[in-house]
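Z., the sequence and structure:
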Amino acid sequence: MNQLIVVSFDSVDDARNAMKRLRGLEGEGRIGFEDTAIVERLADGTSHVRNELSGATETAAAIGALVGAVVLWVFPLAGAAIGAVLGGAVGAALDTGVDPKFVKELKDTLTPGRSALFLVVKKADADATLAALRGLKGDVVQTTLDPETEEALRQALA
């Protein structure tokens, strides 16, 4: 089952640094993401949301491309359009990523100079993940982790 983890940081750069560390673990096969997003509220009060490619988007694109190729072979002119439409429909049906409404709510409450990291985790080596986040100062906003793992995350970010 996927786990939601949302952490806010005192600095705009900290969410990016945390994501960079976690992407390193992903490259080693020690964590897998369904979706990620970084929210930054700059000192001037403007905010930015960086949504990254989600697993649902990747799946939808692959299915759309496959169906498009088959239809393209049978009906050359309509194949690309049908594949794109089907890919979008599959993506909507697989809506398993970070909820955009929740991202907006947190974005609106962040004080200037702070950032937040949204993670939907498919699988993770908990010890490696905690070690990667250790030393970054952050507050756990919300998780679906079990209480012991959530407390370990809070301690790593303290």
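The beta strands are 3-9, 31-41, 47-51, 115-124, 138-143. DSSP finds six helices and five strands in the chain.

Let me know what you think.
H.
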